[in-house]
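Q: I'm writing a short explainer about Choline monooxygenase, chloroplastic for a general audience and would like to include a description of its predicted shape. Could you first generate the structure from this sequence?
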Amino acid sequence: MAILDYLGFGRPSPAAESNSKSPVRALPASWYTSEEMYQLERRAIFSRRWMLVTHGTRLSQPGEYLKFDVAGYEFVLCRDRSGEIHGFHNVCRHRAFPVVQGEQGTAKIFACKYHGWSYGLNGKLAKAPKYDELEDFDKSQNGLFPIHVRVDASGFVWVNLDSKEAPEVPWEQDFDGVDTQERYKVYNFDDYILDHEYKLDGAYNWKILADNFNECYHCPTAHPDIPTLADIETHDVTGVDGYITHQSIPTEEQKKLGMAIASTYFFPNVSISVLPHFIMLQRFLPKGPRSSSMHYQIYRNKNSSEVDFQRIHQLYAKVVSEDKVLCELTQKNLNAGIFVNGQMHPRLEKGPLYFQQRDREAIREHVEREKAAKQEIWPAQQHLPVEAVVSKEDLELCSGLSCQPEQAGLVW
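A: Of course. Here's the predicted structure. Afterward I'll give you a sentence or two in plain language.
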């Protein structure tokens, strides 16, 4: 099916039509199963929007680096000798070999093990063997492909893979004030240190987990331990620009046990749950239209006892394992091709409805841009210099032959 057939252009948005008394139709199953839609999301969302990835305390010393992979885009964050955090794609400028092999570590330089090109901690080209023999080779134009990095007021690190000098979507457009929200003021984020990381691979689309996270309608049925963590009856969510806040009124017993939660979902694919003894940063990482990897960064308050930390950590670990089962069985039925979509409760499921509306808007906006350009637009892609005439001709020839099998073309 052509992708525009199920984008619904020209029709009012279902979420925009909703009110407190009417159920709302969810995104169709095809948005959770289609390879074509997944590639469109890579273009419209993951290569263009700001994404929260970690906390700056993990890069405390010069030379420390971390490698990440989001929807097939692999990139590296590194702190340089002046203390600044840089980001760049894990792609050598010469022949595209990865310059970083490990998941994390400390380096003085980044050296490509294919042809020996090396780069500084800021991504600038340091050495290209034998290229000093060439007259028109400009080292300053051959550093690693940079990505945009922002460290917010709470110390969390964000990236944007847009290859333009300034990203088309400013951080403030979606997240202005999210790092200074009132409920964060009771926490000192410098007191939290990474305890461990783990991941759960799942046979389901990344949006299923996002839908699941952003409502507690399923909590009484699927999570018997949730009342220990939060008061389900007072639980509520609010969508603001690019994020969704979750809140409930903790009981006195929950306060005593350190269960007062400040939880936020950041579109497209990250959530943070902050508690006095514990932080869980959860990243929803698509691996394809029907598979994801959920990465969990677990931070502990260095002033908290082991008992206080483990009490919360074990509860969250149980809840996320339960969510994995829910998501996998849901995806299995979506794959069968029977279910199209259901009607969602505008109050109890307003979180996933808000998330789906953000996703819908991002997709539709990008499709309109591609229609106008009459070609796919990959915001993270390298920009060739003006003098690369032959390369541009080669690209045009290939585009006409549809010779990019991993980047399925749209059918207009």
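A: For your explainer, you could say: The longest strand covers residues 192-202.
Q: Perfect, that's easy to follow.
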